[in-house]
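Risk register update: the risk of archive-format incompatibility is retired. Evidence:
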Amino acid sequence: MQKRNPHIARALFWDALILLALSCFELFTRLDAMWGPLKMFVNMAIGESVPLSRAVTYVDFTIFHTPLYMLGCAALALWTLLSRRTRRVCAMLILPAAALTAVGFALRLTLFGELTRTLKMLPLVILLALCVLHVIFRPARRQAPPIDSLPIRHRRSQHRRAA
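Archived output:
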């Protein structure tokens, strides 16, 4: 019995590659938005000798939600790319993919709204659907030929002895 469907495994590979590219692109674009508040925090804590507990109250931690989410998506895509994409691995991928999909729909909208969210979430939703399909549908089993119809192979030494 085959443990993976080659068509679904190939689709999983390409979808994970697209998800990794989109996640890394958005992660690097969000790093610039994170740098300003982090720089302010470091300047307050180190440069102005403000107590750490007070400096933390000025930092808006919601700016870290989307980059952490993109980091999780990139990690999921890497896991999918580096795995063998068998049915067992796909069963393990369903829970993290479903959790990231739910978190993705709960995140606040970006500058461009629903279009950006749809483009971001599409590879993740497809990855989840492919994993579910791969677990549900078993590949067709190849029927083993009857033992009587198998060709008999002789060793070379037996052929030489007969001749």
